[in-house]
Amino acid sequence: MGRRRDAVTCGGCLVSAVGAAGAVFAWGTSDRTQRHLGYAFENNGMDLGVVCTELPFVFLGGAVGPAAVWALGACLLGRRRRSDLHS
User: Fold this and answer.
1) How many Cβ atoms from other residues are within 10 Å of residue 33's Cβ?
2) Does some domain include residue 46?
3) Cα dist. 70→9, 10, 24 in Å?
4) Residue 16 in domain
């Protein structure tokens, strides 16, 4: 039971890290973010406030969302396996 729990925990951490990195990458490469960071014509509309206001939420959403789905799947799989053992 201990090794399986460690594998599930490690998988959840990996999914969370990949989700956070993917969310930040997708946010950074979007046209909207590029405009705010000054990649428009002659840096018109440069607003570095998006880094302070949006980036933390993007990072947290990218990390928490996939981890929550992973935890839900692990919980449901564990519940199903326990009911199969008792039957």
Assistant:
1) 17
2) yes
3) 10, 11, 19
4) yes
Structure tokens at 46: 């440069």
Number of domains in the chain: 1
- Span 20-31, pLDDT tens digits: 999 999 999 998
Backbone angles phi, psi at 44, to 5 degrees: -65, 135
CA atoms within 13 A on the CB side of 28: 9
SS3 label, residue 30: coil
User: Are the C-beta atoms of 70 and 12 separated by less than 8 Å?
Assistant: yes
For 42-55, write each residue's pLDDT tens digit: 666 677 788 889 99
For 23, counting Cβ atoms within 10 Å of its Cβ (0-12 exposed, 13-18 middle, 19+ buried), the class is: buried
DSSP label at 38?
Answer: T
Report if residue 87 sits inside a domain. Answer: no
